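In the design runs reported in the main text, the only information available to the sequence generator was the tokenized backbone. The following block is the verbatim input for one such run; it is reproduced so that readers can re-run the procedure and compare outputs position by position.
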């Protein structure tokens, strides 16, 4: 596999066993990073790490349920035990499930907010305790254009991504004086298992997001929205809120 001037940097990547996470793992491995891959599906995770290793990369699989704080602490400790440091954390793991704003069940709220918002906060807190003394490191959060355009039927998911963006912005401002970089990558609809039932929406593949994540690590940015067409949609929604409400109320984007 290839290498860059960042060859050897250690990256924790959550949600690594499928979708954007799996493709990102391959993209980063090609660039010479040392990877710690976290996800719940141990078999898929092990196969991915093994395949990367066979191709000359270096990947440590750590099966992790990010909603369990003790497992997050174990993930950080295993990374330090194996590699001695953490240079980048990519909070990529996420879940989505349709439910209306007026009727979310408690398990639904706990699952979506726990995975998409609370777990990244907790894992970042654990990682920063090792980055801040070195005054070096990078947190990359994978958000969503749902933090700008809130489609009906995904209320809790949308809330989790709005929260992610607000938390990311605050974190970035707090960490800047401490030498820690913070970036947000906000994809729109991406062709992954999470969107396999969505109809009528053009989608790019996960490799688009993977390349952006890799680029953000070497060339830090505050936020990258992808694909670029979503910037236009966000601008329209902001400029014309009334018509946007009418259109979105009449059209449920997600089909589950």
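Verbatim output:
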């Amino acid at each position: 596999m290839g290498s860059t001037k960042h060859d050897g940097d250690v990256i924790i990547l959550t949600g690594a066993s499928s979708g954007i996470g799996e493709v990102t793992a391959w993209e980063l491995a090609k660039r010479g990073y040392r990877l710690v891959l976290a996800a719940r599906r141990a078999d898929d995770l092990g196969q991915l790490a093994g395949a990367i290793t066979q191709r000359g990369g270096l990947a440590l699989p750590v099966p992790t349920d990010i909603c369990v704080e003790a497992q997050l602490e174990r993930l950080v400790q295993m990374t330090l035990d194996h590699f001695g440091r953490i240079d980048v954390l990519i909070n990529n793991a996420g879940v989505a499930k349709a439910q209306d704003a007026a009727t979310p069940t408690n398990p639904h709220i706990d699952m979506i907010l726990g995975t998409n918002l609370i777990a990244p906060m907790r894992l970042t807190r654990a990682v920063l305790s090792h980055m801040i003394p070195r005054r070096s490191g990078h947190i990359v959060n994978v958000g969503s254009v749902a933090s700008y355009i809130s489609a009906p039927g995904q209320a809790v998911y949308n809330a989790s991504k709005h929260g992610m963006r607000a938390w990311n912005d605050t974190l970035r401002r707090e960490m800047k004086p401490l030498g820690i970089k913070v970036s947000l990558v906000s994809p729109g609809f991406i062709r992954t298992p999470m969107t396999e039932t969505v109809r009528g929406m053009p989608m790019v593949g996960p490799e688009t997001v993977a390349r952006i994540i890799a680029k953000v690590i070497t060339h830090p940015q505050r936020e990258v929205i992808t694909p670029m067409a979503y910037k236009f949609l966000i601008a329209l929604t902001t400029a014309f809120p009334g018509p946007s409400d009418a259109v979105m109320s009449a059209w449920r984007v997600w089909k589950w």
